């Protein structure tokens, strides 16, 4: 342990989630030593000595973001996302996110779930920020329970399955049920991409037969009903097996309400949405560049977006993750005539903070504490990531300093993700990080980005209920 603390963030207003157990708001000096938060000192007291002091007077200091849903170097069919861990983690830090959770998804039937995760773990050695991983199972066989045990031993406590994408990533009902049961045994969490495959397939075929299959029609081929029916079916499987379940990228208020009802009924169910579902609506498919918005689920109607934002402001949505998927416009433009051959997914790890802050705080009247919950604290707690998501003694020194009044316009060309556009191009947003501290290192400040090199650590996660129960007894 070094004698003098490496860093003090002085005179800032420290904001935590109200669900974190730590004080929601306090004026304090944050003392950083050996990459952790050593102490919070009342701001009325003198600033402790340190190798470096950053004055955060008049600014907010929040825990670094945890992005629970990133796809790095993902291969889906014949497409591969264009970034690697060095690029994604750099962009994440620019955007105030200090931990990313990526997925080890088998690229085909030959790659096992365990191999997919171990491969990602190797690649993650290049990361600039901390990294955790989710697993994924596509089809059940007798080796899956053993593989899931190995994943749990690696600190991978969540497994994602898709109810659609027949022939690539889709898992059938038997597989989902059996994996849920294993995840209960291993104290893990089941992640679900919920869209009803038969409805999506039929609706897509119908549109193709009518010649309405180009990108302009994407939203019509994947109706809200398909998402909600799949959420309903999955909740039934989760209830039957007793499995905690987490729905990625919920895009409709109906889907969120199903989760709310299940929770009222005693189920452990969680709702995630993404910045784009809170901000962009299906009129984007009628604009000059509809290919910028090719993702699944697609953007919904303006009424749906407004209602989804209301759910977020009401606290019904637990996390906002980016679903970061870096394709560039040349990939997006190859087959805009047929959405079945387009790469779906949007770049967003760098813009998650300002887009979410603007949707929740600036436009919906949510508090900064609410924002911290969906941006940092909730993702850390629900994903059982130790020592993250809260500014308190003993936690990792992952910190973001910002002025919520500062407004900037998105300039896709000036961002740092491995692509050449942003779906949020030209939007005026609040909530841009000014200073970012990752594991005690100042990686972003007024002088720009300071590349720390491949220092990101692989973070093993705790058991789902063990972590939750431990937090209920420890507040700091
Ligand atoms: Zn995804």
UniProtKB/TrEMBL annotation:
Gene3D superfamilies noted in UniProt: Metal-dependent hydrolases, Urease, subunit C, domain 1
Annotated GO CC locations: cytosol
Assigned keywords, A-Z: Phosphoprotein
InterPro entries per UniProt: Amidohydro-rel, Metal-dep_hydrolase_composite, Metal_Hydrolase, Metallo-dep_Hydrolases_sf
Chain segments annotated as coiled-coil in the UniProt record: none
Cofactors (names): Zn(2+)
One Pfam family of this chain: Amidohydro_1
Domain of life per record: Bacteria
UniProt domain Amidohydrolase-related: residue ranges: 60-443
GO molecular function: hydrolase activity, acting on carbon-nitrogen (but not peptide) bonds, in cyclic amides
The protein's role, per its UniProt record: Catalyzes the stereospecific hydrolysis of the cyclic amide bond of D-hydantoin derivatives.
Family designation: Belongs to the metallo-dependent hydrolases superfamily. Hydantoinase/dihydropyrimidinase family.
Protein name: D-hydantoinase
Organism of this sequence: Arthrobacter cupressi
């Amino acid at each position: 342990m070094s004698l003098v603390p490496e860093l003090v963030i002085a005179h800032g207003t420290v904001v935590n989630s109200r669900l974190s157990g730590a004080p929601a708001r306090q004026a304090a000096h944050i003392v950083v030593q050996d990459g952790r938060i050593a102490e919070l000192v009342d701001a009325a007291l003198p600033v402790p000595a340190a190798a470096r002091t950053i004055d955060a007077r008049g600014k907010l200091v929040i825990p670094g973001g945890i992005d629970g849903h990133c796809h790095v170097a993902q291969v889906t069919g014949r497409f591969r996302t264009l970034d690697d861990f060095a690029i994604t983690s750099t962009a994440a830090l620019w955007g105030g996110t200090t931990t990313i959770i990526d997925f080890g998804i088998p690229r085909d039937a030959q790659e096992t779930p365990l191999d997919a995760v171990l491969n990602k773990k190797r690649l993650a050695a290049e990361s600039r920020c901390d990294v955790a991983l989710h697993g994924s199972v596509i089809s059940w066989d007798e080796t899956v329970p053993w593989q899931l045990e190995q994943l749990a031993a690696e600190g991978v406590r969540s497994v994602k399955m898709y109810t659609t994408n027949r022939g690539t990533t889709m898992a059938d009902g038997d597989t989902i049920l059996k994996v849920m049961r294993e995840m209960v045994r291993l104290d893990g969490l089941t992640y679900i991409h919920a869209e009803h495959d038969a409805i999506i397939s039929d609706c897509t075929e119908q549109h193709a037969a009518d010649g309405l299959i180009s990108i302009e029609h994407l939203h019509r081929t994947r109706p809200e009903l398909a998402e909600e029916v799949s959420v309903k079916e999955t909740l039934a499987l989760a209830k039957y097996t007793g499995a905690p379940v987490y729905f990625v990228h919920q895009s409709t208020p109906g889907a969120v309400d199903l989760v709310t009802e299940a929770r009222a009924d005693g189920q452990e169910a969680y709702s995630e949405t993404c910045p784009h579902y809170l901000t962009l609506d299906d009129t984007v498919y009628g604009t000059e560049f509809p290919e910028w918005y090719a993702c699944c689920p697609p953007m919904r109607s303006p009424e749906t977006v407004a209602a989804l934002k209301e759910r977020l402001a009401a606290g019904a949505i637990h996390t906002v993750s980016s679903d970061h998927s870096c394709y560039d416009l040349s990939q997006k433009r190859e087959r805009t005539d047929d959405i079945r051959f387009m790469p779906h997914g949007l770049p967003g790890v760098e813009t998650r903070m300002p887009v979410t802050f603007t949707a929740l705080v600036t436009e919906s009247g949510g508090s900064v504490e609410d924002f911290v919950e969906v941006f940092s604290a909730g993702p850390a707690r629900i994903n059982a990531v130790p020592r993250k998501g809260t500014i308190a003694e003993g936690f990792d020194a992952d910190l973001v300093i910002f002025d919520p009044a500062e407004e900037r316009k998105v300039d896709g060309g000036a961002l740092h993700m491995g692509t050449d556009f942003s779906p949020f191009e030209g939007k005026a947003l609040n909530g841009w990080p000014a200073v970012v501290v990752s594991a005690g290192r100042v990686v972003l400040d007024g002088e720009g980005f300071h590349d720390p090199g491949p220092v990101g650590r692989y973070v093993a996660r705790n058991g789902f209920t063990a972590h939750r129960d431990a937090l209920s007894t420890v507040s700091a």
